[in-house]
Amino acid sequence: MTHLHTGLSPEIIEKARLELNENPDVLHQDIQQVRDMIITRPDIGFLRTDDAFILRFLRARKFHQTDAFRLLAQYFQYRQLNLDMFKNFKADDPGIKRALIDGFPGVLENHDHYGRKILLLFAASWDQSRNSFVDILRAILLSLEVLIEDQELQINGFILIIDWSNFSFKQASKLTPSILRLAIEGLQDSFPARFGGIHFVNQPWYIHALYTLIKPFLKDKTRKRIFLHGNNLNSLHQLIHPDCLPSEFGGTLPPYDMGTWARTLLGPDYSDENEYTHTSYNTMHVKHSCSNLERECSPKLMKSQLWSLKGKNSHYHTLLPEERS
């Protein structure tokens, strides 16, 4: 057993072999093949290239070296293209801290029956005067960076559940194509995590419309792992056992405590007091250029897009001609 497998059980090592094509006998050669490709992309600054880091990209792409390198390159390129998002990229950054305290994301302590970590998003909790979408995305990406250090999660992967209960049309209008695409690029195309399922529950019609809007940017594999349950929790329980879920999702666990993950990341710095007034937040928000992304498309435009999607599908091709490719 290579030192890179230290701490892994024989069962997990065997699972990596069967599901991910991971072979301990040639593991270092696989890693070196990916590392050797770095010289082909002198336009990218590869800030970390150690064995353990490259290994997570190989696992995310089932040890296809070319695909793993492409993901590694996209990981660093995404950060180069969105420098403002990754300034002060740590839990005590004011914007990230606010999002974490408000439960973006929630992370259940226990895994599901396949060893996957379950992340939760309660969409209606998004106070748009308090948290920018970009800061919520930053908090999610930071959380994944922390979680992916766990080798078992590199192998077993993650589940994401989004509860859209009481998510208003006004809130949905802030989910512009620009920021949705930013999220897709950051999570689907540029991060070495295996998502076993993305589950929507209690979604209104305009979330169905938004899903249609972003479909062209989703890989086929991602589309197949998105499940729209509506208010049918039985279909959710067929894929995730109730004894792994909090009561909000019809599970047997207690209601989710929004501060659980924030306390884990922030430690002694955690405070759930309302320490950020709207005034101070708005002042800070104006100063940071990451908010520019959210001004690219107005809520009016988003509403017109949603109504056209609901009323007549043919308008969609006018909005997103990429679907034809």
Automatic annotation (TrEMBL):
Its main location: cytoplasm. One of its GO terms (cellular component) is early endosome membrane. Keywords: Cytoplasmic vesicle, Endosome, Golgi apparatus, Lipid-binding, Membrane. It comes from the Eukaryota. The keyword Nucleotidyltransferase does not apply. GO terms for biological process: lysosome organization. PROSITE patterns: CRAL_TRIO. It is found in: Cytoplasmic vesicle, Clathrin-coated vesicle; Early endosome membrane; Golgi apparatus, trans-Golgi network membrane. Residues 96-257 form the CRAL-TRIO domain. GO terms for molecular function: phosphatidylinositol bisphosphate binding. It is a peripheral membrane protein. Required for normal morphology of late endosomes and/or lysosomes in neurons. Binds phosphatidylinositol 3,5-bisphosphate (PtdIns(3,5)P2). This is Clavesin-1. It comes from Naja naja. The lineage of its organism: Eukaryota, Metazoa, Chordata, Craniata, Vertebrata.
